[in-house]
């Protein structure tokens, strides 16, 4: 079972609670359609979840899974457009992540966009897409470019003869 399947299984109760709270005719929040892989990171879209209380519960359920997950990170999409970070769900996710990341020194979270937070519970296993870090290839290319510029300037100055 991969990480997305584990998360879907663990969030079945949240799905049931979300269905009970939704308005008739509205699109339901389903683990099948709102939990998946995005750029090698398990990602949960909370935009149709149904409120801050369920968002907090969902984050805590994911926290309980960290020992069983392999990826090292989980992303939470809190909405779309400008309402995402300022919505009740966005605020609840940010506050809950702040609280749980304070419990362990190695845990952190990053805002990977204005509507997405990525919870990093094992930075050694988290993909670069989750941490927003630049990869080794970037540093090698930047170093090579810098060296080429220095050599070009030195050649223009006549250092090489």
Describe this structure in words.
The chain is an alpha+beta fold and 161 residues long. It has 7 helices and 5 strands. A 5-stranded mixed β-sheet has the order 1-2-3-5-4. Strand 2, helix 4 and strand 3 form a beta-alpha-beta unit. The protein is elongated.
Strand order of the largest sheet: 1-2-3-5-4
Query: Averaging pLDDT over every residue, what do you get?
Result: 86
Order of helices and strands: HHHEEHEHEEHH
Taking the alpha carbons of the first and last residues, their distance comes to 64 Å
- Beta-strand share of residues: 15-25%
Give start-end ranges of low-pLDDT stretches. Answer: none
Shape: elongated
Structural class: alpha+beta
How is the biggest beta sheet arranged? 5 strands, mixed
CATH fold category name: Ribosomal Protein S8, Chain: A, domain 1
How many distinct domains? 1
The CATH class name reads Alpha Beta
Radius of gyration from CA coordinates = 21 Å
Percent helix, as a range, is 40-55%
Number of strands: 5
Reported CATH architecture: 2-Layer Sandwich
Number of helical elements: 7
What distinguishing features does this structure have?
161 residues, alpha+beta, Ribosomal Protein S8, Chain: A, domain 1, 5-stranded mixed β-sheet
Helix and strand layout, with pairings?
Blueprint: H1 3-10, H2 12-21, H3 31-34, E1 35-38, E2 41-45, H4 52-65, E3 73-77, H5 88-101, E4 108-113, E5 116-120, H6 128-131, H7 136-156
Helix pairs in contact: 4-5
């Amino acid at each position: 079972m991969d990480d997305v399947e584990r998360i879907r299984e663990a969030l079945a109760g949240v799905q049931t609670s979300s269905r009970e709270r939704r308005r008739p005719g509205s699109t339901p929040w389903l683990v099948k359609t709102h939990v998946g892989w995005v750029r090698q990171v398990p990602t949960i879209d909370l935009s149709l979840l149904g409120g801050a209380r369920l968002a907090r519960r969902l984050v805590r359920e994911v926290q309980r899974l960290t020992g069983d997950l392999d990826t090292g990170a989980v992303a939470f999409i809190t909405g779309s457009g400008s309402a995402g970070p300022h919505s009740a769900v966005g605020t609840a996710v940010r506050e809950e992540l702040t609280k749980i990341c304070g419990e362990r020194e190695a845990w952190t979270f990053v805002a990977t966009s204005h509507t997405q937070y990525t919870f990093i519970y094992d930075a050694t296993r988290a993909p670069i897409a989750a941490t927003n870090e630049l990869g080794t290839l970037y540093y090698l290319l930047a170093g090579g470019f810098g060296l080429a510029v220095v050599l070009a300037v030195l050649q223009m100055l006549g250092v090489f003869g």
